[in-house]
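dumping the sequnces here before i forget
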Amino acid sequence: MRVDLALFAHLSGFQPDGRGGRSSRPLELEEGATVGDVASLLGLPDEPRIVLLNGRHAEDSTALSEGDRLAIFPPVAGG
Amino acid sequence: MAAPGGPRERLTCERMPDPLDDVALRARLAAAHVALIGCGGLGSNAAAMLVRSGVGALTLIDFDVIEESNLNRQLFFRDQLGRPKVEALAETLLRIDPGVDLTLVRECMTGENLLATVVHADVVIEAVDRAEVKAMIADVMARDAGHVPFVTASGLAGFDSANHVVTERLGENFYLVGDCVSDVRHGLPLFASRVMVASAHQAHVAIRILLGHDEP
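..and the predicted 3d for all of it:
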C-alpha cells in the first residue's frame, strides 16, 4: 500500500529519497504496517515526536491504510 | 473574572456569512474564547494581540512567576518581578481592555488536567517552552479534543530569518507555527523579534479560525 508521508525539522532527512524538506511524498509499505513500522523502517531517532494520521493523533501501534496522510514532527523547545 | 468552561456557543464549526461587515466581525471576536497554555514569550504577546483585536475572553494558564530573564521577550515589566505571570499579564490586558473576560489558571498542565481546563475554548494556543510538554499537549489535544482548533509552536529560537517562521495546517483542527528547526536546547538565544513573529502567527491564525477562514 502507499501512504503520503511528511517529516518535519531534522526528521526530514530520514525521507527515503534523501532530499529532505517538509513536503510530503509517497511511501510504499507492506499491508498492515503501523506507524511504529514506519519509524523503524526509516530509522527515526527515539525521541519525543508528534504523530498525526489524517490530521488526528496516532500511536505507534496504529495501523495504516492505503492513502493515509502521515505527518511526524519533533517538538522543538522555546517559548 | 469568569468561571472556566461556562456555556458558550462553539464558533469554529460554522461559516460566517460573507462578506462580513465591521460590526459582525467585532461581534464574532467579542463572543470568542481563546485558551493560552503558557504565558511566556509566545503566550503573553499573543494574549495582548488577541485582546487588541477584540477577542472577548481568554483563559491564561501558567504556573510560573516572572524572572528577570523573562524581560527580554515577555510582556512583563521590572516592577512585576516575582509575581505570578497570569496575574501580572491579566493586569496588563485589563489596562488594554477593561472589558475583557479573563480566567486565570496558575497550574502546570498535565495529561490529567489539560483537557478539562481548555476544552471549552473556541481555540487553544500552546505556548509552553519545553519540548516534551509541547508533545504531551499536542498528543492530548489531537487524541481527545480533535474538535477544538489547536495552534502549537515549534522552532522560534535564534537569529535565522523571520521568513522561515510559518503557519502550517497539519490536520482539520491542528495548526503548527514555527520553523520546526531552531531549538533553544542547542544554545540558540530567544530574541524578542523572532519570538513575537511566532506569537503573532499564533494570534493571527486564531483570529482567522474564529472568523471562519481556512489557513492555506
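Chain B has a mean pLDDT of 89.
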